[in-house]
Specification:
about 350 residues, Arc Repressor Mutant, subunit A, four-stranded antiparallel beta sheet, about 30% helix
Length: about 350
């Protein structure tokens, strides 16, 4: 009698049994369990039956998913359009299994698969769940708790029943035998990309957002004129830094709490007492004030500034200014003291 052709896994079973006892015959009985062992008489018979049964139970999931791909894999048509898939579908227990990764984008979903353990987590706006290879249960989704057939790992992909996907996401599922096609229809609620979020308009008074204070128009006019007079030839960064020093004082408990009172404090801004504040506003001063109010601070939190090439370290003002920690130098100005 000629030798029956057997798959490779069952051949390993036969070889293993052959090493334990000599009088063993293995015959194929179905494509579900794959094989059974007929053990002859002898002192090993009881052990062999137990080993054969245990191996058959352990190998059944693998044998059931081996060499069972359809001869002509079907195509998938979604809402009238052919879906391009990367993984060939397979048949298990007369059920069509597909790679869930090939279908995830239809519901704006993402697949998080741990191939070593066969655990997969699926997330989407439509539904979320956790699956385990070899287990029909559906975890984390009270709407659907069981699959028609257990998922199978193949080639690093999780293969799941297409019927399960249809039930989970509310798809209409049909079969066209003439074209060998699986037909899926659904409302593409998640296919269209959401609109890009528009950046929020910056708060022109961001520095005072946590306070009730808002400067008046007269204060703003004086603010711009002081920045212009104090830094007429400075780069824009230096002008913003001068404006930031004034704001830092308003926000500090060590100084008055309005721009007007900070600017008009005695012996603080000489451009007011000497009349330079009344000169035409230079370019950049208004922008510097706007950007400082929006939160820019090139002074790095300074409370004071002075022209270091004009103030002597031995003068009364110089001894005080130079005693403060310097935060930064911009143009001809040294910025000192921190919040």
């Amino acid at each position: 009698m000629g030798e029956t052709k057997r798959p490779g896994v069952s051949g390993l079973v036969r070889a293993r049994l052959k090493t334990i006892g000599r009088r063993i015959q293995i015959e194929r009985v179905s494509n579900v369990t794959g094989w059974y062992a007929e053990v002859g008489s002898g002192r090993w018979s009881t052990r062999l039956w137990a080993i054969a049964l245990a191996l058959a139970l352990c190998l059944t999931p693998y044998l059931a998913a081996t060499n069972v791909d359809a001869a002509t894999p079907p195509q998938f048509v979604v809402n009238g359009e052919t879906l391009q898939t990367t993984t060939t579908p397979m048949l298990v227990e007369d059920r069509l299994l597909v790679s869930i990764a090939d279908f995830a984008h239809l519901v704006d979903g993402s697949v998080h698969l741990h191939a070593a353990t066969g655990v997969m987590r699926f997330l989407s706006p439509a539904a979320g769940f956790i699956l385990q290879a070899g287990d029909r249960a559906v975890y984390g989704n009270p709407a659907i708790t069981e699959q028609p057939v257990a998922p199978v790992m193949r080639g690093g992909e999780m293969m799941v029943s297409v019927r399960f996907l249809a039930d989970a996401f509310g798809w209409t599922l049909d079969w066209d035998g003439e074209t060998n096609a699986v037909l899926l229809d659904f409302e593409p609620e998640f296919v269209q990309d959401p609109p890009e979020p528009q950046p929020a308009e910056p708060d022109p008074m961001a520095v005072f957002a946590e306070t009730d204070y808002r400067p008046t128009d007269d204060e703003m006019d004086l603010f711009v004129r002081v920045v212009s007079a104090e830094a007429p030839n400075e780069p824009l960064e230096g002008q913003i830094a001068v404006a930031a020093v004034i704001i830092n004082r308003v926000l500090s408990s060590q100084f008055p709490d309005t721009i007007r009172d900070v600017l008009l404090a005695p012996n603080q801004f000489c451009v007011i007492s000497n009349g330079q504040v009344n000169r035409p506003v230079v370019d950049g001063a208004e922008e510097a004030v706007r950007r400082a109010l929006a939160g820019e601070d090139p002074s790095l939190g300074a409370y004071f500034f002075f022209a270091y090439d004009r103030v002597s370290q031995t003068s009364t003002a110089g001894r005080f200014m130079y005693s403060l920690p310097e935060t930064v130098r911009i143009g001809v100005h040294s910025f000192r003291g921190q919040r």
